[in-house]
Design a protein that fits this description.
By secondary structure, the protein is an alpha+beta fold. It is built from six helices and 18 strands. Strand 1 and strand 2 form a beta hairpin.
Length: 448
């Protein structure tokens, strides 16, 4: 069957900040009061105060992340474009496991790397990605990703705000610590990021690796990116800090799995809504048997906890429950998703990617003696793929697991029959039938 349409807006935040339209102001007339200033365009971002701290949601100005009160020389990002340097940035695959129509496409770009530092960027990006994909379920399902490196060239090495607020660098993406006065908040010019990401064959998620050893990062929701942005969100992280990779791992939990934050703020009090949260990892129910993750209740968890209902999450202190005491969605002191988060992540992978693809187009009929070849994504660990073949809806048992077969070998005689290859993932990491249903995809050819 044709590749299912991709969803494009699952990046979850506490709330989406309204995008205010910039009002045009008329020239001043002597004797008249000046026109009111236009409303400020803001973005809501997730902020990571320290390597083991709980994240926070903050709202920052969107127009100039590099500008700080300490130095008005900060570069304004309005004209940052891929062509500004006079050379089109190099785009190359770090990992290509299948067609863009059947994969999650992750675009990674650097900021604060000069033309002579592009090899360093590639090495930094690969090291950061290896750390992220060392976390389950990314490790097992890395084969559902294509990864593209965009070699963004900056005029200066390093990024603004490192080490101090008044250290300003001219960089292609305007990366800056001390964003809105918060030292560890590493903001970026999202308009420039969007333009550079468009150079890749496709982009579902974007990472920006900032050339710095200082800890910091940020997560941007799809709602706060420039209008028409085709990807789920942007995560920024510093290149040479060994804990910053967890920022990317956490943010993918939002963008791919639709997971909510499991932390709470002091003083937020009781959860104010009567409706059950949509996120897989929050519930109103105190009884684990009534929670949406009841199939996991009582199971020892990779986080060291036991799956149950733990009060507090989604920024509220009471009246809302999370599956485990801690997890990567609660604090970066944890390096593991809980089993509920893993399940949501795997379902999210399959919402955007297919484990089964083929170089043989399904749009044209095939001859009875033509070999039909299929390819399975190179999944490992938690994954357990099963490939089957059927003719006109009836399974051919002997062909299970076979990657290339002719219609004649499947028993087809005559014209007008249909052969179908189907893959399902029987992973034990999925217990929810709805999540398991997400894992299957089929390809069908008509025999002429």
């Amino acid at each position: 069957m044709p590749h299912r349409a991709r969803t494009r807006a699952r990046w979850i935040t506490a709330a989406a900040a309204a995008l205010a339209a910039l009002a045009a102001t008329a020239g001043g007339i002597p004797g008249q009061a000046a026109a009111a200033a236009p409303p400020e365009h803001t973005q809501r971002v997730e902020y990571f105060p320290g390597p083991a701290a709980e994240p926070r949601q903050v709202t920052v100005p969107a127009d100039s992340p590099a500008a700080t009160p300490a130095d008005s020389r900060a570069v304004r990002p309005g004209a940052r474009t891929p062509a500004a340097s006079g050379t089109r940035p190099a785009v190359r695959p770090l990992q290509r496991t299948g067609p863009v129509s059947g994969r999650l496409d992750l675009v990674v770009m650097g900021d604060g790397y000069t033309a002579g530092e592009q090899d360093e960027f590639a090495a930094d990006a690969e090291e950061k990605l290896d750390a992220i994909f060392g976390v389950e379920p990314y490790r097992s399902y890395r084969g559902l990703f294509n990864i593209w490196l965009v070699g963004v060239v900056s005029p200066e090495s390093g990024v603004s705000g490192d080490p101090a607020a008044d250290d300003v660098k001219d960089t292609a993406l305007g990366s800056a610590f001390f964003c809105d006065g918060l030292e560890r908040l590493l903001c970026v010019d999202t308009g420039a990021v969007t333009r550079y990401a468009a150079l890749a064959p496709d982009a579902d998620i974007v990472f920006v690796v900032a050339h710095s050893a200082k800890y910091g990062g940020a997560g941007y929701s799809a709602a706060d990116l420039p209008p028409g942005t085709p990807f789920h969100g942007v995560a920024t992280m510093s290149s040479d800090n060994d804990r910053s990779y967890l920022i990317g791992a956490h943010e993918l939990g939002h963008s791919i799995g639709g997971l909510a934050d499991e932390y709470q703020y002091a003083g937020y009090g009781a959860y104010p809504y009567a409706e059950e949260p949509a996120a897989a990892n929050l519930t109103l129910h105190r009884d684990p048997a009534a929670a949406k993750w009841h199939r996991w209740a009582g199971v020892p968890d990779p986080t060291g906890s036991v799956v149950g209902t733990y009060e507090g999450g989604g920024y509220y202190e009471t009246g809302i429950h999370r599956p485990t005491d801690t997890s990567l969605m609660r604090t970066l002191a944890s390096t593991e998703f809980n089993v509920v988060g893993r399940e949501a992540m795997i379902a999210g992978f399959y919402a955007d990617a297919d484990a089964l693809t083929s170089p043989v187009p399904t749009s044209a009929p095939v001859r009875g003696n033509r070999p039909v070849t299929v390819r399975l994504a190179p999944l490992t660990g938690l994954a357990d793929l099963r490939l089957t073949w059927s003719v006109d809806g009836r399974e051919v048992p002997w062909a299970a697991g076979v990657r290339a077969v002719t219609p004649h070998a499947l028993g087809v005689r005559g014209h007008g029959h249909r052969i179908t290859a189907t893959v399902t993932d029987r992973t034990a990491a999925l217990r929810d039938p709805a999540a398991r249903a997400q894992t299957g995809n089929s390809l069908t050819w008509r025999v002429r």
